[in-house]
Amino acid sequence: MAHVVVAAVLAMAAAAAMVSASPAEGVQPLSKIAIHKATVELHGSAYVRATPALLGDQGEDTVWVTVKYGWENPSSDDWIAVFSPADFISGSCPNPRRNADEPGLCTAPIKYQYANYSANYRYWGKGTIRFQIINQRSDFSFALFTGGFENPKLVAVSKPVAFKNPKAPVFPRLAQGKTHDEMTVTWTSGYDIDEAYPLVEWGMVAPGGGVRNPTRTPAGTLTFNRGSMCGEPARTVGWRDPGFIHTAFMRDLWPNKEYTYKIGHELSDGTMVWGKSYTFRAPPTPGQNSLQRIIIFGDMGKAERDGSNEFANYQPGSLNTTDTLVKDLDNYDIVFHIGDMPYANGYLSQWDQFTAQVAPISARKPYMVASGNHERDWPNTGGFFDVKDSGGECGVPAETMYYYPAENRANFWYKVDYGMFRFCVVDTGHDWREGTPQHKFIEECLSTVDRKHQPWLIFAAHRVLGYSSNAWYAAEGSFEEPEGRESLQKLWQRYRVDMAFFGHVHNYERTCPLYQSQCVTGERSHYSGTMSGTIFVVAGGGGSHLSSYTTAIPRWSVFRDQDYGFVKLTAFNHSSLLFEYKKSSDGNVYDSFTIDRDYRDVLSCVHDSCLPTTLAL
């Protein structure tokens, strides 16, 4: 018997390892560079020139820089890198050098492009590339390397270029607070608290225009250092100073009213440094009967509009998803990004790149996030999965760069009441099984919602704790994470969860209403009356490289799409909801269903949903 138990445990461990590793098929582009092996061999015939030297002189936080370069020995594997800070050669280097006399490079670039991206380079030994640069609190330089990525040799460096104010507040991220009448705004700057005081100026938009009773609210300030990272590359070549992250709370908001705000800092001499002005609409009160529209997706990642860093085809759909959501900004109210945000994987500069990419959304709409394996997972750090998917970040950047209304920010689980919706957001980087703090939270979140006023109950997590016919899950025969739904399906059924959303698998899939792997109805597009099971949705096609399915389609799989996209939920009232899956490429609907029901349908008993009753009179 003992041998059987041991074998079962080993099999489960192997399955967990396979499932955990499978989504990492793409390669973080910056990890392809053996920067620890780089040598500095500046050559007299080589040059790099970047213009303009002054960036953002009109207050811009994103600009284009033209880089001209050349040398007498061009090669097809030469490449141009962007470094920040600009002085990336001198200073203490944590990487081992091959000999004492050899200069070493101790930081990875923030982006790069092959030199022959410019058509003339291979033949004429000179070329021109345009890079998109965002304000990242320091200056920049551009470097020409030969020797490819495996044996890079630095042959030329440009003079530094810099933003007019590198410390300026940038890239605001809204999030709903712990109560419905609270909106938080988080942003990044180069100002520590002893240099400038962070604040947000905000107020309700008056009916005739202008701002009613503008208020200034102070912000808290956080940061982290190299020692906060748990492993390589985050502690070594991937490290970059994150600056300072500020969060302010705008409280006592009137439901559905429009507000305007701008982030800023008061310098010691009283001078104000302001960011851009934005507007947002305050959340509805819990149970409020109004039109409410939700966006849900996972695994978006980031991409570069200048074409750099894209040789690994790592997140090819990311910009499509972002741009489609920006174009449709007036037609939804709140966003849930359920894990795997930038896929920085220990290259900290990529967090700035990601916040810049989604800023047109997050500055206007609450941008609620969940923790994914590429944010949290690292061995021996208290997580549930002992894998290296976070590149040594072990959750620190995600837990600092974004606000979410958790009781303990190190435990990435929380609830959100948004009008007629209750969202229970779960952290699959921590144990969710019975007897754990997270399992207790899940039951409390599901059991404390008043369904007559908040009829739409949504469960969301990163790893698939429900159902997916993804190829690697199917190979293990589980169609889920190991022990994914075993401790949860009775809770979903007892508390009548409408839908459970997951990412991690980079595609789209919707199931029938399910309980214990069985469809409880044959309906596919319209559900009415008593809901006898939960609909499970994989919405992991936000932008990262796509995942394949098993060839045999399970009976519970209603719709599958191996493409990039997101889900939109529209609650018209307490009885009617529309579900839509839209592709990122065109924003059109490719799968949908409706739900029509009354409160009594939520109360109706189905298998395992009600406690025993008495026959007493």
TrEMBL record:
<dbReference type="InterPro" id="IPR029052">
    <property type="entry name" value="Metallo-depent_PP-like"/>
</dbReference>
<dbReference type="InterPro" id="IPR025733">
    <property type="entry name" value="PAPs_C"/>
</dbReference>
<keyword id="KW-0325">Glycoprotein</keyword>
<comment type="similarity">
    <text>Belongs to the metallophosphoesterase superfamily. Purple acid phosphatase family.</text>
</comment>
<dbReference type="Pfam" id="PF16656">
    <property type="entry name" value="Pur_ac_phosph_N"/>
</dbReference>
<keyword id="KW-0964">Secreted</keyword>
<keyword id="KW-0378">Hydrolase</keyword>
<feature type="domain" description="Purple acid phosphatase C-terminal">
    <location>
        <begin position="533"/>
        <end position="592"/>
    </location>
</feature>
<dbReference type="Pfam" id="PF14008">
    <property type="entry name" value="Metallophos_C"/>
</dbReference>
<dbReference type="Pfam" id="PF00149">
    <property type="entry name" value="Metallophos"/>
</dbReference>
<dbReference type="InterPro" id="IPR041792">
    <property type="entry name" value="MPP_PAP"/>
</dbReference>
<dbReference type="GO" id="GO:0005576">
    <property type="term" value="C:extracellular region"/>
</dbReference>
<feature type="signal peptide">
    <location>
        <begin position="1"/>
        <end position="21"/>
    </location>
</feature>
<comment type="subunit">
    <text>Homodimer.</text>
</comment>
<dbReference type="GO" id="GO:0046872">
    <property type="term" value="F:metal ion binding"/>
</dbReference>
<feature type="domain" description="Purple acid phosphatase Fn3-like">
    <location>
        <begin position="48"/>
        <end position="165"/>
    </location>
</feature>
<feature type="domain" description="Purple acid phosphatase N-terminal">
    <location>
        <begin position="172"/>
        <end position="281"/>
    </location>
</feature>
<keyword id="KW-0732">Signal</keyword>
<dbReference type="InterPro" id="IPR040974">
    <property type="entry name" value="Fn3_PAP"/>
</dbReference>
<dbReference type="Pfam" id="PF17808">
    <property type="entry name" value="fn3_PAP"/>
</dbReference>
<dbReference type="GO" id="GO:0003993">
    <property type="term" value="F:acid phosphatase activity"/>
</dbReference>
<protein>
    <recommendedName>
        <fullName>Purple acid phosphatase</fullName>
        <ecNumber>3.1.3.2</ecNumber>
    </recommendedName>
</protein>
<feature type="domain" description="Calcineurin-like phosphoesterase">
    <location>
        <begin position="293"/>
        <end position="508"/>
    </location>
</feature>
<dbReference type="InterPro" id="IPR004843">
    <property type="entry name" value="Calcineurin-like_PHP"/>
</dbReference>
<dbReference type="InterPro" id="IPR008963">
    <property type="entry name" value="Purple_acid_Pase-like_N"/>
</dbReference>
<dbReference type="InterPro" id="IPR015914">
    <property type="entry name" value="PAPs_N"/>
</dbReference>
